[in-house]
Queue: 4 jobs
Job 1
Amino acid sequence: GSDHEDDTETPFAPTEKHRELAMSDYGSDHEDDTETPFAPTEKHRELAMSDYGSDHEDDTEHTLANPAVVDKYKVAAEIVNKALAAVFAACVPGAKVCDLCGLGDKTVETEAAKFYNKKDKDGNKIEKGVAFPTCVSVNNQVCHNSPTDDVQTVLEEGQAVKIDLGAHVDGYIAVVATTKVLNADMNAPVVGQQADVMQAAVIAGEAAIRKLRPGNTTTAVAAAIAKVAEDFGVNVVEGVLTHTMKRFVIDGNKVVLHKTSPELKADEETIGLNEVYALDIVLSSGDGKPKIHDEKETSVYKRAIEKNYKLKMQASRAVFSQITTKFPTMPFTMRAMAEVRGARLGITECITHELLHEYPVLYEKPGDAVAHFKATVLVMQNGNDRVTTWTAQPIKSDLELNDEDLKALILEPLKAKKKKKPKA
């Protein structure tokens, strides 16, 4: 909508605690990392590391309280939605997975080039482009499958394909994910187990987005997702988090942990006004405990901004220099490196010394049905703005939501209708 200009209320400012989450992308020892980083990362490092601090919460310049920021999120969302539509249409039997991933990233770059081409008030070019590389994960692959061009895997009829990608404008990030089943007749509905997990994921998303309101807790959001999964007889996938996003920070400290376990716990926190969330729903007909099959499949990484180390190998230093220049804060794919084979060698030493976070390709068991849907949600004064969303095929599931409270909740509008001003 265009009514965000009235949303200037001071954002809710809960204290952000450091979290010892097994799946967290942030270490707890960053306060000792005082070595000067590579020059290109200084601005990004300062912005991204601010997510640890407690004094940035009053900075409304970079929040949804600023209409210019809302506009940038919405442009990033427009870019992402177009890239998703391009990849969705191209996901057909015979298409190479690596080509689909390349198409998503190229579409993001092409669309981003159309916007914000004037320099900012300080005379700097506005950065924009890929915020999360396109991943195309097939069947029981849960996420993060973004292969290099030498991997010749092609899609086949009947497969369930999860598409996941993100873009940013000036560091303001929009992400999206959806699931497509390659039916022989694309007008025919998805049926069976795959329909159950997809229908459950769509409904869980509708419930969760309505729970992401100021004053509600992260626990209440997770409980809504869990209840929908229970009614459909499917499992929430472990390790999946709904994160806040901030400028140059794709995975902020405030999280909804969808499924707790002895290894994974998160503090309960309160949803705040003017926050931005990557609402990430992943459900499975299996046990929801995905595993890594082959570490060599990993091709998505992110610079660990809180870590520094003087690399020994020349190949490693060259790769790390390229990463800090081209991808100082956002996740990237091996496909984007100048020379992939040489980069693999350098990446290994970077990982050994914890300079990079890995996004491994995760799998449920063969035969398990998996659905992945993700939306970018702006928590605004007059309701939530879902600026990116999934594209759902026709789905025919014999199961349905039984919980009466959630049934009523998902019928509620996301935004309150504007009251018409009486005529004078």
Note: Confidence is low (pLDDT under 50) at residues 1-41, 52-58.
Job 2
Amino acid sequence: MNSENFSLSERLVSASYVRQGSQARRGHEQLIRLLLEQGKCPEEGWSESTIELFLNELALMDSNNFLGNCGVGEREGRVASGLVARRHYRLIHGIGRSGDIAAVQPKAAGSSLLNKITNSVVLDILKVAGVRSVSSCFVLPMATGMSLTLCFLTLRHRRPKAKYIIWPRIDQKSCFKAMVTAGFEPVVVENVLEGDELRTDLQAVESRIQELGPDSVLCVHSTTSCFAPRVPDRLEELALMCAKYDVPHIVNNAYGVQSSKCMHLIQQGARVGRIDAFVQSLDKNFMVPVGGAIIAGFDEAFVQEISRMYPGNVHLPRGGAEDAGCGPRGAAATHPAQPHLSGNVAREPRETEPEGGHSAGLHAVHTPGVWSQGGPAGH
């Protein structure tokens, strides 16, 4: 409904009632205008009605939804099931063109616009979450492991002599398989036990770089958050080491956006040394279905190079509508509570320990969110 249609409606319904409806509509449109104008996550989360209005408006911009249109090409957004079409708000064409996921699809202006907005909103959220200097990111319809593989394959073109990826060990299969799938040999560096914590063995990492030779090392593959008793890698020291030896640095930040500690480590690492890209899971951080990730970095040209490495077009990225519905305040609402809750998790098992019995809890001060004396651990 535009202003002309609202005026015509006054012939059928009381003008005062129509004006109320028009004002309500303008409220939705004002929110959409601010999103398009600023490209940032709304400060206050949108209602579902605003989100659905916006998605329906965007869908009408795609050629498969043009009135009277009957496409005869090989990609015309045809869907046999109405149920499937409605599930995707009739945004059927997807994004990308000729194998470039970042390219605008001429037949899908609405879908392409939604993709651009999603990437812009996610970039804003990463900054709000703590990585203030991040310069570029994009959302992929692949989980964290395959997104890490894409980063490694992109680095292959920059470092053709490289054969190895140095990897401080974590007991998780996907990140290990990501390196093998990309065709590289993981060089596993065991962690060192410090109290109850498993921490990065910096001396061993540097020794591996020196033994193998920097040119034969594709990158250091570090991790922010994993399962206790392993704590986040020493990102600042690793970033300094990578800068010293001119070795790329890829960070597995699968769980990290929800943790101010993890995001702080990435920001500090990029500030003092080298971090080329960091990858985070959509489902672990944004509460959307499994199968999406965000690749972000501090060099826009490198992030774009990674996006061009993706072969083919894709369905629309998930997460954009959820981000708008949540807003930065909602997305970050759990951050202040994490240190307190983590402290309870660490403290309460100890209160139930039998005298002279085994320890029921780990004293892991570098675990994201755990408080130490004087404030959050590591800050």
Note: Confidence is low (pLDDT under 50) at residues 370-379.
Job 3
Amino acid sequence: MTTFAATEASRATLINCPNIALSDGVLHPAIGFGTYKVGFIPASASAAVAGEESEPQRTARECVADALDCGYRFLECAEFYGNEVEVGKAIAESGIKREDLFLCSKVWTTTIEKGPEAIRAQLEKTLSDLGTTYIDLYLIHWPVPGKHVEAYKTLETLKKEGKIKGLGVSNYALEDYLELKESSIEFPPLVNQIEINPFLYRKNTIDAFLKDGVVLQSYRSLRDGKAMDDATLLQIAESHGKTVAQILGRWCVQHGFVYMPKSVKKGRMVENALVFDFELTSEEMEKLDSLTTQENIQKYVDLYRKCVNRDTSKDGSMDGVKMAITED
């Protein structure tokens, strides 16, 4: 098994990675470091609920310090992740200038349900924890029924105050986005952060967002490591002299999605980022595009219905949940 180590060349490639232009003209790094389950496992995370998740062996401070040393400059954070204060410590200790970082965070369902003052207080906490006076992107984590539009408008107010540079959404079905867009908002979402990988490539939804100028951030880009033995991926990886993780990452980048791998191991952080020195053929891209099954789409639909009310007073119910959404 190849062991990857950070080099001056790999750092330079990450620090100077390609950018994707957002609809407001801001340049968004094409790759970032995801901090979910880094040093902390949220109590309502599905694996934690199922008893499948062990206690973290390293702190978020240590992991993010490694990621920054590898050259990552875009950090993907969230209230729900429960580790922003540790992320902030790593940033402070790194000595990296604030203007050289791109920080994204998300407000959680419980705060969204509580309303404007709670959202404002949470943003202030996030800014304090991360050690910054502004956030580059701030997202609605889930489209909480009956609450997410009001929450977004609160974020618009905070943007006008200079605390947020750009606004976005996460886990929005096309119908949630249209509901928001038709609610007299001033600043259309710049991004939608959704699960995207060859095994959940919802092309109709993706194309609709891209056509409307919304950049897509991909989480679970590496399928949580559950696709590393897939025959198609292994064959393509072998033909390029790359790892399966690098093929998944390259597929994401080549489609124009923001790629957000995560790992608590420094060698993996380096490995995951080595995606800018090769290209997949059109035939390989088509093969990977076709790996999505109806079963995986149904799992997505089930998760969506479960999570829009997650941790709120309506947790476990379908109260307000959109039952007819664009699935693919």
Note: The longest strand covers residues 164-170.
Job 4
Amino acid sequence: MLRQPKPYKILSCPIKCSVEKNLVGKICIVTGASRGVGRGIALGLGEAGATVYVTGRSLETPSEGFGVLGGTISATAQLINDLGGVGIPVQVDHGNDEEVRALFERVKAEHGRLDVLVNNAWGVPMDIDNLEGSPKTFWEQGPRYYDAMFPVGVRSTFVASCLAAPLLMGPQREGPGGLIVNVSSFAALTYTFCVTYGTAKAAVERMTSDMAFELRPFDVACLQLWPGVVRSERMNYLDQKGELPSAFNLSRSESPIFSGRAVAALVADHARAMLSSGQRVVTAELAEELGFTDEDGTQPPSIRDLRHMVPFVCDTIGMPSPPAWMLPAFKVPFKEMEGEPPEWLFKPPAKPE
């Protein structure tokens, strides 16, 4: 019997917490912040006192096709204000370079600098989980997913980073350089959802590494953030419909604000951020190191931790899981997670008769 998923409290009201307001005066941009991980990161920065420009297409009403999930940048900005930060909603289509340029020109005019850019905007079609009539193979999908995720996902990350870089460095700054966080996932290593999704995530991984190399002399960090299974609006929606794949068991999931607390911890410790520049930062593993918790006070284990993997595998194949005390805090090397997933996790498409 699976445990019931933990509620996603941040959807309806701001959480009450005693997070230190150590980011007051920090100027941040979080793209794609109307819902999900982007919203959680914006809230994590906001609860630490930061000024956060939250961007997305949905100012007052959800974007077309996503009404069932809800979420707007205005609502995110209000929650940031409620948590003690400064939330500023800016309607931006990250597939439109002129709108993106106007955002950075506004930040420069109002503050003269930028401390944090979080690239989270991602053109994910509503049917990407293959559960609502989506074709399952790349040849059936054709270029539709590619044309969604590469312009707003890969290219938008590059464009925003180009515009942010001069504001993250230079003589206008006092103290250390800034930080670019590119939100990615374990899909950069192994098959998840579809061919295009993993290819786009892998592209961002290489982009992050190479950007970090060029930014390091300017004391600017650039890293990937890898959340675990997140209780986003999309995941909760699928769970309520009974259509959530076993690979995304919400009983061992993270809230979106857990990612926000990971970013806030890195912003507060620039030396630590520079150590991870160009690398993968797994939210749960950073929490173990730096001591921050999820909204319920827990520290969920990393996806590659045996404390997550063993119960997950047992649930998936219908076996009882061993007691938690028997499972060591051992993390499977990233190298062992590369390549094709096991068939009990993602079944390959059936060959036609």
Note: The first strand starts at residue 27 and ends at 30.
